[in-house]
From TrEMBL:
SUPFAM superfamilies tied to this protein: S-adenosyl-L-methionine-dependent methyltransferases
EC number from the UniProt entry: 2.1.1.222, 2.1.1.64
Record CDD domains: AdoMet_MTases
Low complexity: bias regions: 262-274
Gene3D superfamilies, per the entry: Vaccinia Virus protein VP39
Domain of life, per lineage: Bacteria
UniProt entry tagged with the keyword Methyltransferase: yes
UniProt name for this protein: Class I SAM-dependent methyltransferase
Alphabetized InterPro entries for the sequence: Methyltransf_11, SAM-dependent_MTases_sf
Entry keyword annotation includes ATP-binding: no
Domain Methyltransferase type positions: 50-139
Species: Actinophytocola glycyrrhizae
Keywords from the named record: Methyltransferase, Transferase
């Protein structure tokens, strides 16, 4: 059961402050909290969950502990292997072109990835596409105008992303890991909400600031203010049947190229996903 109390927000903030020195604790606390947040919207026991941009699978233990079958994808081999050899349930793939069948997962989850993608609307549309009708898309990201929008270059991103990156490089003698225009982009809560409103194949169930106590979630309803005060924004969408019976997804301006129909894609059974069949031909990190 998820309870968005002030004590919980303080606990998360304390864990975040120690992220660099004690990553395991930070991710254990965050992952448990995230799994509880998802469980509010969909039963996790027995579900198939795809984590888009899951890195080395920080959240896998928490989702598995709640009975979900966890599959993570990430395009970056370094991220996939950040905690050692990636497991069989981790695939190397891009969130804007998921090697996953339309309508095949119960939950499509993504945490802190959208702002690292040059085409966030395309990734959102892909997440909707692979989710089964009635399933849930749960996506969170750091809005550009939030205090942490520039990531390690914050708060100088308020003076411009390129300026903040140059300043960071000058001070630290190396470029920031999250490089504006390359691996960090300015995505806003407003843009995400507009995308959701235009998506014909999913309905927005809820938008809220991820870490706030329940009595402060109203900020997400106020244009302008929500960009500054959300810190991290969550969108929860429920997949509908879609205009064409649940196959291709057209969301907003980001019409995506549908992946080939299941009958034309060679498939293999994944040992990580008993009873499920996944498109073959994409490399895993192994
Ligand atoms: C800040 S980390 C977030 C990791 C984890 N989801 C979390 O919440 O801690 C961003 C992740 O997004 C991944 N990423 C970047 N571009 C991506 C893309 N186009 N598709 C999927 N993942 C991507 C990165 O490799 C990285 O692992």
């Amino acid at each position: 059961m998820h309870s968005a109390t002030l004590a919980r927000s303080v606990r998360l903030f304390r864990a975040f402050r120690n992220e660099q020195t004690d990553r395991d604790t930070f991710y254990r606390v965050l992952a448990a909290d995230s799994a509880d947040q998802v469980a509010v919207h969909v039963p996790l026991a027995g579900s198939l969950l795809l984590d888009v941009g899951g890195g080395p699978g920080y959240f896998s233990d928490a989702f598995r502990a709640r009975g979900a079958t966890y599959v993570g994808i990430d395009p970056d081999v370094g991220e996939l292997s950040a905690r050692g050899a990636p497991g069989q349930n981790m695939l190397r793939a891009n969130g804007t072109r998921l090697p996953v069948r339309t309508g095949s997962v119960d939950v499509c989850y993504s945490s802190n990835v959208l702002e690292h993608v040059s085409q966030p609307d395309v990734m959102l549309a892909e997440m909707v596409r692979v989710t089964r009708p009635g399933g849930i898309v749960f996506v969170s990201f750091t809005p550009w105008w939030s205090p942490w929008g520039g990531h390690e270059t914050s708060p100088w991103h308020y003076l411009g992303g390129h300026y903040a990156a140059r300043r960071y490089t000058g001070r630290h003698g190396h470029e920031p890991k999250n490089r504006y225009g390359t691996s960090l982009f300015a995505y806003s809560v407003g843009a995400a909400l507009r995308w959701a409103a235009a998506c014909e194949d999913a309905t927005l169930v809820r938008a809220f600031p991820r870490y706030h106590p329940w009595w402060a979630t109203w900020v997400v309803r106020v244009p302008g203010l929500r960009e500054l005060l959300s810190w991290n924004a969550v969108l929860v969408l429920r997949r509908g049947r879609g205009r064409r019976g649940g196959a291709p997804v057209l969301c907003g301006r980001a019409g995506i190229t549908p992946v080939p129909s299941p009958s034309s894609v060679p498939v293999r059974s994944s040992s990580a996903v008993p009873g499920r069949r996944w498109p073959a031909g994409r490399s895993t990190a192994r």
